[in-house]
Amino acid sequence: MKPYEMTIGPEGYLPPAVSARGIVGPSKGEGLVMGKIVPEQQAIEEAARRLLQAKNPTIFPGPLVLWAWNEQAAREATAVKALAEAVPAKLIPMADYRPKYPKIIAEREINPNHPNLTIWQNKIDVCLFVGVHCHQSNIALKIIRGGTNCFTIALCTFNGDDEAHVTIRDLTAETIQRIVDAVHRQKRS
After folding, report:
1. Domain 34-188 -> CATH class
2. What is the pTM for the complete model shown?
3. What is the distance in angstroms between the CA of the first residue and the CA of the last residue of the chain?
4. Where are the domains of the chain?
5. Is 109 left (phi over 0), alpha (psi -120 to 50) or beta?
């Protein structure tokens, strides 16, 4: 069997879990780009490039950065806002994970159980998840990859999210600032 190659979707109604296809998460100092392990700085540069090239880049901040529950969350929220301004990118919060039924206002919020609806409604071609708990981002990113042509980026506080097209692990406000710096650098060149 040939190695699995991650694609930009839609990949299908029930895309395979990439971990079941041989994709492994990055170690400290590394990131993933399209399922391949790369140095962290290369993943940062790719995230910045994809955000800048997008027609409608959108950042989905989750509860870990939306609610200032500690000093780190407050610093990360400030850095996320700086990233949105630098790109510029739209911000659509994922404040909690409860299903939003029977209807959501897709321009203002994301239904984490059906993120494809928000992607389609807003014609989002590149999205970035930050501050979303791992179990929720994994499911949402898989749904987006399976049913849309949106390129996904996940900034993870822990081990990274292998379901995203680009993932960076061990997130800090400084890591987000490195993406902001990469955006500014790429805009100048």
Report:
1. alpha beta
2. 0.94
3. 42
4. 34-188
5. beta
